[in-house]
Amino acid sequence: MSNHKYFGTDGIRGKVGDIPITPDFVLKLGWAAGKVLARHGSRKVIIGKDTRLSGYMLESALEAGLAAAGLSAAFTGPMPTPAIAYLTRTFRAEAGIVISASHNPFYDNGIKFFSIEGTKLLDNVETAIEIELTKPLTCVESSELGKASRIVDAAGRYIEFCKGTFPGIFSLKGLKIIVDCANGATYHIAPSVFRELGAEVITLGCQPDGTNINQECGATDVHLLQNLVLEEKADLGIAYDGDGDRIIMVDHLGKKINGDQILYIIAREKLRQGQLFGGVVGTLMSNMGLELALKQLGVPFIRAQVGDRYVLETMQKKGWRIGAENSGHVILLDHTTTGDGVIAGLQVLSAMISNHVNLHDLCSDMLLLPQTLINVRFIGQSNPIESEVVKETCFEVEKQLAGRGRILLRKSGTEPLIRIMVEGKDAEQITTLARRIASALETAN
Predict the structure, then answer these.
(1) Nearest to residue 61, comparing CAs of 135, 111, 5?
(2) How far apart are CA 238 and CA 247, in angstroms?
(3) What is the Cβ-side half-sphere exposure of residue 375, based on CA atoms within 13 angstroms?
(4) Do you find a cis peptide bond into 20, omega within 30 degrees of 0?
């Protein structure tokens, strides 16, 4: 993991109005990024955002900073993160910038960058940007200043790209799908993709007002979607997070289908078609049930650190094409360069149609072990995971699990939280054990 001051596992993120998510800092960030990126020759940067109210302020600040460094900004308006990765590639832009805090509440925001290849910036490029941030802001000659423009057909381009990943011989005709866009960036994209492929679509979380993004809806809270799937007798539900790089699904019985299950469905289908080249990458959080189910198929499985950038790095090292986090980041390098909720959903629908099977039955061969997740907020720079009381508690919990489960403690890369995960065969036992660890962390905090 990098030791950057500002860049975390998913770009720069924080509360709006607090450093680094302030207009003056983001102006300087645009300038610093412009100085570094301009060295590579191109002069255009694509800027997209989700539906947060603060996006207007931050895109203006970024554009001014980039212009001062001599780079031109092309705005897309609200667009999913993976759409910016795609447009950066197709426009041969020097970089893409997304203004989003993904699954966080509306009062947070963030800035993440994509390279000309549509992948996240390398550590050394982020380091170079941070070095520029320490220097005084300067301005290029007036004749060299950047311009601003708008990409008017951005949504249409991306919708066609997504549809192009779905087999031309298939149609979604006859399927009733509830699509929950978390009042976020997919609100005007995902429903169109599924409708244009023939599905009957009912929308949820498609009325963003700037402050309702991820609010009791979307991939982080599927209870409304589950209820609506049952109420409407729909075939399935699809939920995205605020910036559209995560997907969680709901089957016709109202049961949640997470990233591990989606990964399994897609991997097995690729294997069936003879298109699974190598194995599959999960994370430390991936359910043991996924590992066991893939083993039965004879599919190699590796765990990366938590964070889609680490999943992608591991995939690239192995030369594999499929990876995912259980939170719903699904990366399919056969189709695109980053986690893409719409494209992942289309691959699951393709598997359903190809096998004439509903979503529930499609993942019935994979049994998830019970997992308990608890977040404990911590204050300051100390790491409570390293305290003796926490280490001792974890040792005792592992003894009780006796090799029939596992525990994982980690610091969140995006919020001041310690994430506790306990997994095992007995749901009641693991909940009790997770609470014991949480209590120890609170004592150490």
Answers:
(1) 111
(2) 7
(3) 8
(4) yes
For 414, the token pair is 């995006």
The helix (H) or strand (E) run that includes residue 257 is: strand 256-257
Which of 366, 370, 358, 354 has the alpha carbon at shortest distance from 296? 366
Q: Which two tokens stand for residue 47?
A: 């800027």
Tokens linked to 211: 């402050």
Q: What is the pLDDT along the chain (445 residues), one digit of tens a residue?
A: 457 889 887 889 999 999 999 999 999 999 999 999 886 666 899 999 999 999 999 999 999 999 999 999 999 999 999 999 999 999 999 999 999 999 999 999 999 999 888 888 888 999 999 999 999 999 999 999 999 999 999 999 999 999 999 999 999 999 999 999 999 999 999 999 999 999 999 999 999 999 999 999 999 999 999 999 999 999 999 999 999 999 999 999 999 999 999 999 999 999 999 999 899 999 999 998 999 899 999 999 999 998 888 999 999 999 999 999 999 999 999 999 999 999 999 999 999 999 999 999 999 999 999 999 999 988 777 778 888 899 999 999 999 988 788 899 988 876 788 999 999 989 999 999 999 999 999 887 7
Give residue 302's identity as a one-letter amino acid code: I
CB count within 10 Å of CB 395 equals 9
Ramachandran quadrant class, 117 (left: phi over 0; alpha: psi -120 to 50; beta: rest): alpha
How far, in Å, CA of 335 to CA of 338, rounded? 9
Q: E-strand spans in 305-439?
A: 322-324, 330-332, 371-377, 405-411, 417-424
Amino acid at 59: E
Q: What is the Cα 31 distance to its own chain's centre?
A: 26
Residue tagged 């897609």 (tokens): 266
Give the single-character DSSP code of 143: G
Rg (CA), the chain: 22
Distance of CA 290 to the CA centre of its chain: 19
* Residue 274, number of CB atoms within 10 A of its CB: 7
Name the nearest CA neighbour of 35 among 118, 128, 112: 128
Q: Is 102 labeled as catalytic in the residue annotation?
A: yes
Q: Which two tokens stand for residue 124?
A: 């050394």
Backbone angles phi, psi at 279, to 5 degrees: -125, -155
Catalytic residue among 102, 115, 286, 350: 102
Residue from 134, 142, 144 nearest 38 by CA? 144
Residue 87: helix, strand or coil by DSSP?
helix
Sign of CA dihedral 362, 368, 374, 380: negative
- The one-letter code for the residue type at 232 is E
